[in-house]
Amino acid sequence: MTNAIVVVGAGVSGLTTALLLSKSNANVVTIIAKHMPGDYDIEYASPWAGANFLPMSTRENSRWERRTWPEIKRITEEVPEAGIHFQTSRIFRRDKDMEGPSCPSDPMFDHDPWFQSVLPDYKELDAASLPAGHDSGCEFTSVCINTAMYLQWLVGQCIKNGVVLKRAVISHIREAKNYSHTGKPADIIVNATGLGSLKLGGVEDQAMAPSRGQIILVRNELHPMITTSGTEEGLPEILYTMQRPAGGGTILGGTYDIGNWESVPDPNIALRIMRRVVEVCPEIAGGKGIDGLSVIRHGAGLRPYRKTGVRVERGKLDDGTHIVHNYGHAGWGYQGSYGCAEGVVELVNAIREENGESLVTEPKLFSWDN
């Protein structure tokens, strides 16, 4: 039996989900989306991401990231054209940030983090390695992703597996079933619309909200990537840096401003971001302060924040069409992409088994599966 599946959304979650679904010969997959890789729009979060691998989940909810890291590591080692490279990451903590109101990324600043047994080369830093004003820190090997390259690589992998991509704008999730390239209505819809799930008919998830991220992309090089637990400007403004591979530039961030829909970068925030970065890492600008930064562009994107956490679950529409959701990743869409996509495949396979299919010969999702 062949299953016609339509994936709605062509961000990193939708593309990765379509790729894993396409590994089964029984699935015929179509992706529909308003925005595709190559587009830059405030509605389309994936191109704006840094992107890196800094675990943001709690120990209890770490499955998605735990399952993603080995595949991201394999791609980095074996597939240079995907646009990912290893980069040392340093996280700096201030005790006063740990004592105040929590922010969504707090788990990465834990003193005994769950990911110390997952990410390579983890160690706590000594006092001499800390910038002024910080009380502790850690270091480990992470990755940084050139999103312009990686999203296009995912598209290529999908096409190679027979996935068809279509531009479409829908107002209700049920409309998606009519876009399957098989010529028949889809058996299963996968909703990977991110922040779009707030207003998309048939979903309208009121737990969704934008988490605005403002960044600056510069030509200057900086190693290692840096993340701090807080700034003097309050919770919405944070400090992080990462250098994209293959000439992708260096990201200077940033903000994590929940509820802010503004698409235009704020010049005052940009100045504060640059000032904070050169204070912690003066070498990036050759000791010239912000005048030593060579700016490529300013940007703002809206992370798909969900206050109740990521939604990876199945349901049915009123007409009986099966739907599987995969959205609400906030700032960790890339680093949870393979784990969440794997979760979607499990739910799709459960539907198939209920329909009487045998999955004994299903292929492995990842090359690293045992």
Give a nutshell description of this structure.
This is D-amino-acid oxidase. This protein is of the alpha/beta class and 370 residues long. It has helices at 12-21, 63-78, 95-99, 147-160, 267-280, 337-354; strands spanning 3-8, 27-33, 84-93, 123-124, 136-145, 164-167, 188-191, 208-218, 225-228, 237-243, 250-255, 257-258, 295-306, 311-316, 322-327.
Describe this structure in words.
This protein is an alpha/beta fold. The protein folds into two domains: 3-46 and 148-205 and 308-355, 3-Layer(aba) Sandwich (Rossmann fold); 88-143 and 208-306, D-Amino Acid Oxidase, subunit A, domain 2 (D-Amino Acid Oxidase, Chain A, domain 2, 2-Layer Sandwich), CATH 3.30.9.10. It has helices spanning 12-21, 63-78, 95-99, 147-160, 267-280, 337-354; strands at residues 3-8, 27-33, 84-93, 123-124, 136-145, 164-167, 188-191, 208-218, 225-228, 237-243, 250-255, 257-258, 295-306, 311-316, 322-327. Strands 3, 4, 5, 8, 9, 10, 11, 12 and 13 form a nine-stranded mixed beta sheet that branches. The radius of gyration is 21 Å and the shape is globular. It starts with a strand and ends in a 16-residue tail after the last helix. The mean pLDDT is 94. Keywords: FAD, Flavoprotein, Oxidoreductase. D-dopa binds at residues 303, 331. This is D-amino-acid oxidase. GO terms for molecular function: D-amino-acid oxidase activity; FAD binding.
